[in-house]
Amino acid sequence: MSNPTAVSRNASQRRLLLLATGTLGGVGLVGTMVPFVASMAPSQAARSRGAPVQVNLDTAAPGSLVTIAWRGKPVWILHRTWDMLDRLGRHDRLLADPLSREAQQPTYARNATRALRPEFFVAIGLCTHLGCVPTYRPEVGAADLGEDWPGGFFCPCHGSKFDLAGRVFRAVPAPLNLEIPPYEYQSETRLVVGQDLNGPA
């Protein structure tokens, strides 16, 4: 016959061993998961690449194009002259989306100049066809672009054309106007790309 006290003690020891083993296994699992989950968080370098970028507009002479990097993409700041602005409304018949109805810009840039301030055009410098970088071609009636060319951006990869407000021409591969990132002015000469009144993008 077995001793009931010994059986009870053995059962108690088994429960204690199971509890200790389960607890130790749980602690080990959590200890293993913490570094794994932490490695999935973006690094400091990745976070800084997505941070808003400040631009000093004093460096942009009228007619010049300044390129900065934001989130790994080229962002253009074009200081348009009054002549460039005057030309914007004259070629709407050549454009696929002259009124910017497609959501390629924040609501504050859904206007004739696609900008907060008419003289400064801010856009992501990637063609909306396959992501090539168009070239800045401000000259009117360039021989290789046709006499109707009002000045703008030309994508050499597949021939897409955009005017000086980043609006896409008809009958080109690009389906949409150039994308406008969120941005705001902190002063007359300081622009911040990547944040607007709604906060950082």
From TrEMBL:
<keyword id="KW-0411">Iron-sulfur</keyword>
<dbReference type="Pfam" id="PF10399">
    <property type="entry name" value="UCR_Fe-S_N"/>
</dbReference>
<dbReference type="GO" id="GO:0008121">
    <property type="term" value="F:quinol-cytochrome-c reductase activity"/>
</dbReference>
<dbReference type="GO" id="GO:0046872">
    <property type="term" value="F:metal ion binding"/>
</dbReference>
<keyword id="KW-0479">Metal-binding</keyword>
<keyword id="KW-1278">Translocase</keyword>
<dbReference type="InterPro" id="IPR036922">
    <property type="entry name" value="Rieske_2Fe-2S_sf"/>
</dbReference>
<dbReference type="GO" id="GO:0016491">
    <property type="term" value="F:oxidoreductase activity"/>
</dbReference>
<comment type="subunit">
    <text>The main subunits of complex b-c1 are: cytochrome b, cytochrome c1 and the Rieske protein.</text>
</comment>
<comment type="function">
    <text>Component of the ubiquinol-cytochrome c reductase complex (complex III or cytochrome b-c1 complex), which is a respiratory chain that generates an electrochemical potential coupled to ATP synthesis.</text>
</comment>
<dbReference type="InterPro" id="IPR014349">
    <property type="entry name" value="Rieske_Fe-S_prot"/>
</dbReference>
<dbReference type="InterPro" id="IPR019470">
    <property type="entry name" value="Ubiq_cytC_Rdtase_Fe-S_su_TAT"/>
</dbReference>
<keyword id="KW-0472">Membrane</keyword>
<feature type="domain" description="Rieske">
    <location>
        <begin position="90"/>
        <end position="192"/>
    </location>
</feature>
<keyword id="KW-0249">Electron transport</keyword>
<dbReference type="GO" id="GO:0005886">
    <property type="term" value="C:plasma membrane"/>
</dbReference>
<keyword id="KW-1015">Disulfide bond</keyword>
<keyword id="KW-0408">Iron</keyword>
<keyword id="KW-0813">Transport</keyword>
<keyword id="KW-0560">Oxidoreductase</keyword>
<dbReference type="GO" id="GO:0051537">
    <property type="term" value="F:2 iron, 2 sulfur cluster binding"/>
</dbReference>
<keyword id="KW-1133">Transmembrane helix</keyword>
<dbReference type="InterPro" id="IPR006317">
    <property type="entry name" value="Ubiquinol_cyt_c_Rdtase_Fe-S-su"/>
</dbReference>
<keyword id="KW-1003">Cell membrane</keyword>
<keyword id="KW-0001">2Fe-2S</keyword>
<protein>
    <recommendedName>
        <fullName>Ubiquinol-cytochrome c reductase iron-sulfur subunit</fullName>
        <ecNumber>7.1.1.8</ecNumber>
    </recommendedName>
</protein>
<dbReference type="InterPro" id="IPR017941">
    <property type="entry name" value="Rieske_2Fe-2S"/>
</dbReference>
<keyword id="KW-0812">Transmembrane</keyword>
<dbReference type="Pfam" id="PF00355">
    <property type="entry name" value="Rieske"/>
</dbReference>
<dbReference type="InterPro" id="IPR005805">
    <property type="entry name" value="Rieske_Fe-S_prot_C"/>
</dbReference>
